[in-house]
Amino acid sequence: MRTRFSRVVALLLMATMLVLPASAAVKVTDDVGKTLTFTSVPKRVISLAPNVTEILYAIGAQGSLIGRTPVDDYPPEVKNVPVMGDYTQPNIELLLTKKPDLIIGTISFRKETYDIMEKYWNVFIADPQSVSEVSSLIHRMGLIFQKEAQAKKLEEQIRLMPVALKSLGGQHPRVLLLLWHDPPMSVGKDTFINDVLNQVGLVSVTGSYTQPWPTLGEETLLKLNPDYILYPEKSMGGEAASFKGRPWTDLKAVQQGKLVSFNDDWVFRAGPRLTQGMAELYLKVVQQKPNAKVLFISNKAKIASLNGSLVDYSKFSLKDGRFLVDPAYAKTLGITSYQGNLRSSSLQAQWVDAEKMGVFLLP
Questions:
Q1: 30, 36 in Cβ contact below 8 A?
Q2: What own/partner pairs with CB < 8 Å and gap ≥ 24 does 61-66 have?
Q3: Beta-bridge mates of residue 295
Q4: Helix, strand or coil for residue 259?
């Protein structure tokens, strides 16, 4: 009897194993509405989008990456990955030799290029248009590469960062965010960059424009007359060369010196460092405290974040509605004072009840 029972169990286990691959198949829909099915984790992946490359590293899926674009520069070790051409025109001949099982790119592909790639390979198009869609993209990458736990932390940070910032309050000025200054080019309403501005409490003067990347004439600039001008520090090369002469000198933001630079990659790349861009814009403009730090700890999500970067949640504890931080760890984070000395006192939270979260603006 025992032998017969053992055989039955063995047969059941074998049957389970046989159906497992089908039941474990992962289906995801990309940002142009195409559904892809994965029966296993892709092992030979080419990323033709810098933000996606960053996501793969952030969730721990970089071991599958075999190709990138020339502008993929973060994290630094990505420079060891071969270049497959740029994000608009990859090298098809080179792709054929690499035999990828997944290519991830953007809508910037030429149609004929996309058609060729789709003929030979699985192609996932990433085109997030809002902060929540960036979170969704990270979630889908987590599913594809079976890195759901790692992706979940990044998703929660992106979701909670605006909650944390809004709880701290601050001013809500009208801003002009520039992609470029000659001619002036900004962002319209249906872009994730415009949504970033909204999430941190900034009012974009071009936020109602239907064009995603509107070019602004001289009269339009004078009419918009923003309180602040925000510009990318790397690509525009500094304010001195960018805002001389008219119409710039007629704008109150220039006259009052309200010209704020930001990290291009943090704000322009729809990836995990977007939270750092949110923190930077919030501190520099909404709070006017560029050297301050935003710390939040979510007991519900079990994550902690400092200026948009995840830190070790296990170093914080909650007791009687107050957060305590490990003294040695606080010192490594550079938060050794907050209304006293963190090494000997607890953090008093601005409590966000729904999220079980403490939020702090540290000097």
A1: yes
A2: 61/141, 61/145, 61/147, 64/145, 66/98, 66/100
A3: 306, 360
A4: strand
Look up the pTM and report it: 0.88
Assigned token pair, 233: 């520090």
Collapsed DSSP state (helix, strand, coil) of residue 231: strand
Residues contacting 256, CB < 8 A, separation 6+:
none
Q: What contacts 23, CB < 8 A, 6 or more positions away?
A: none
Q: Is 49 exposed, middle or buried (0-12, 13-18, 19+ CB in 10 A)?
A: buried
Prior bond of 184 cis (ω within 30°): no
Alpha-carbon gap, residue 4 to 244, rounded angstroms: 89
What tens digit of pLDDT does each residue of 125-173 get?
999 999 999 999 999 999 999 999 999 999 999 999 999 999 998 999 9
Residues present in the chain in total: 363
Give the separation between CA 154 and CA 310, rounded to whole angstroms: 8
- Rounded CA separation 123/198 (Å): 32
Answer positive or negative: Cα dihedral of 194, 198, 199, 201.
Answer: positive
Nearest CA to 161 out of 39, 40, 307, 264 is that of 307
